[in-house]
Structure formats: C-alpha cells, structure tokens
Amino acid sequence: EYLEPQFDIFEVQAPPPGVDIVAVVDGSGYMSDNWDALYSSLPSLMNGISDLGSTWRFTTISADPDRVIPQAWIDPSVANLEWATIGQFQYVQALAGQDETGLDASFAYALNFPNELVEENDLYFIFISDEDDQSNITPVAWKDLFSRFKLNATSKVYSGFIGETGGECGDDLGANYLLVADATVDLCETDYSPILAPLNARVTPVLDTFTLEAIPEISSLSVYINGIETDQWTYNSDSNDVYISAAIPL
User: Fold this and answer.
1) Side-chain-side CA neighbours of residue 76 (13 Å)
2) Which residues, in sequence order, are CB contacts of 174 under 8 Å at separation 6+?
3) What confidence score (pLDDT) does residue 176 get?
4) How far is it, in rounded angstroms, from Cα 201 to Cα 220?
5) With 0-12 CB in 10 A as exposed, 13-18 as middle and 19+ as buried, what is 216?
6) Is residue 51 within 8 Å of 196, Cβ to Cβ?
7) What is the mean pLDDT of each run of 10 residues along the chain (250 residues)?
8) How many Cα atoms within 13 Å fall on the side-chain side of residue 133?
C-alpha cells in the first residue's frame, strides 16, 4: 500500500535583541474628552510592556510632525514606569495647536532622529487617537516606507492603534490607523495588553523541542538549521517530539 509522505516543517524565528516602542499620541483638541480614560489605562499598557522582559524601550511623541521632539527613553531600569509614562503623555498633551497626522509624525521621527532608534531592535509604533489620521502619506505608502526602513534583515516594524475602533468611547473610526495597525484596542478598554501580542510573540525564547504531527519512520527524519543538516538531535517516541541539542543561531 502506498502512503503519501508527510512532512513537518518548523520555522524558528530568533527574537530581536530589543524593542523600541514609540507612542504617537494625538494631542489635538478632539482628544480633550478622552485623556482621563487614557491616563487610567496607562498602567495596563505599561504592565503589558513590562512583560516583554528587559529588552524594551518606550518613548512618546506628538502626532504632529512639526512638534515631534524626542523624549528620554523609559526602560525597565526606571523606578516608577507609570509616573514616567504619564509625565511623557502630559508633555504631549500640553503642546499647543497640534494636528492629527500620526503617520506623518512617525515617519518624521524615524527620518529626522535616526540616532534615537537601535537598528537591530524591532520598532513598534502605537498610535493613540480618537479620530482618523489626516496625514499626507497614505496607509499603503506608510507600510511600504517602513517595510524598507529597517536595513537589518532580522528586525521588524509593527504598528498598533489605541483609539475609537467602533465602540462608544469616541465619535470617529480611525480608519487610516486601522489600515496600518497589526492590533487595535479601544480607548475605553481597561486592558491594553492585547495590542502587544505581536511583540510578545517575537521575544519568546527560541524553541529547541518540536512535537511532530504524525509518528515518523525514524530513518526518514532529518533536521536542518539554516539549510545545513545537523545530527545533534534526538527523537522521543513517548512524546513524539524532536529535541535539537545544537546551538540555534540568533
């Protein structure tokens, strides 16, 4: 009897050395009714970021490209993450006459202050607004520009959106932000941790054990690392998994 061969292929993605997280905050007048909700939820956001371990840095900029001024990076060494974050958001809130052009602002930040970012780190923009973006750049162009921004082949660019996503908190749907965002959370939600799911998936430890979908013929098993076959592995028939003892390059 002929049996169709089965293959288990596992792609292991090495974690980045770090993550640069930039909150692009709408400081326009339309946000005036939502600052209290935002401030009350910041501890949830920072708790989610803290779960990334010691690899992250966080900062806040205005969604107006003419008012993008780098602030100090907040990282795990900061004694009170909540108050440090609130202080950065209050700085943006106090800036006068801001436009809601967060896509333009994020690109202006990366273009004008490249030394603020670590090339090898993942880059994650979190857009925060209760209205749609009014940038000159389109969501499609934004994605295209940032897909080419990172010269390091292993680093990634992500974006998320905290704002009016169709609930009852605000009046407008942030359509342009939703088109670039990998994850969305409503401004009135008390749990912002889901927006960090893409980053949590990236910083988890590299796997060395892989459970197979079917019982294999042992003589047919082969293990490759970066396309090079290795014999530094063992098969456990009780758990039907392969353990790789060779060092998996990061």
Assistant:
1) 12
2) 127, 129, 130, 131, 132, 133, 161, 163, 164, 165
3) 92
4) 31
5) middle
6) yes
7) 64 76 92 87 88 89 95 93 94 91 95 90 92 92 84 80 74 83 87 84 75 84 82 90 75
8) 29
